Amino acid sequence: MILSQRQLEEIAASTTKDFNRFFFGDEADKPDRSALPTPIDQFAKNYLGLRVSFARLSPDGSICGVTAYADTEYKITELGITRTLALKRNQVILDESFILSGNVQRLCAKRRFTLAHECAHQILFQLESEEVKASCEMRYSARTVYTPRELKTREDWNEWQANVLGAAILLPQKEVDLAMRRFAETPLINYEGRYSYGDHLTLRLFCRLFGVSKTTASIRLRQLGYMVDRPFSEYVDPLEVW
């Protein structure tokens, strides 16, 4: 199933609207409310019914998360030793680096995006036809052992869609609209990675509110028209003295 960006936005909007009513109750329908960042852990566990756990997924940390649509197994080879771990239906496994001492806060934004990405895979799977679902479930046979990289490669066709949908779940357009109405009167200007003091502060507040990285925030704000790009040559440093 190939979906356009607009279709993915519509899926994210309807899904997060339903979740917000489920999680926030009457607060979600108040006309004068503030932005409601998506609590992605509760979205995954309480709304989608996914089981989230942590394990070492690769020797070099290159695999951040995996999920599957039927019970299967995956193997990891490290220092000549191969481990086989179970991956159950409706389970998401995130790399254990996210919860190691000193990493919880530092990698919080990355963990949240990874979980949103895996949630998006599960949502997209549920939208498939019964025939496609059956085919996917057969491929993820419990008799077959995959490496985490093979599990991800099997979904390469869907990775772009999962990235777009995951970002729209973490940063729903309605919530971004509400936040930017509060934070900025005009679009932020990105001078090839440099910002005015005011725009830099706005971007930091936005990232803190939604629990996302500067990169994720910039991509999403640009998509929704809240950030424009200018060449660095146009940047004027207010502290520079001539």
Can you put this structure into words, describing what you see?
- The chain has 242 residues and is an alpha/beta fold.
- It folds into two domains: 5-170, no CATH class; 172-242, no CATH class.
- Helices cover 47% and strands 14% of the residues.
- It is built from nine helices and eight strands.
- The protein has helices at residues 5-24, 40-47, 108-126, 130-139, 148-153, 156-170, 173-183, 197-210, 214-223; strands at residues 51-55, 65-67, 72-78, 81-87, 91-95, 145-146, 188-190, 227-229.
- The strands form three sheets. It has a three-stranded mixed β-sheet with strand order 1-5-2. Strands 4-3-6 form a three-stranded mixed β-sheet. The protein has a two-stranded parallel sheet with strand order 7-8.
- A hairpin with a 2-residue loop joins strand 3 (72-78) and strand 4.
- It is globular and about 60 Å long.
- It starts with a helix and ends in a 13-residue tail after the last strand.
- The mean pLDDT is 89.
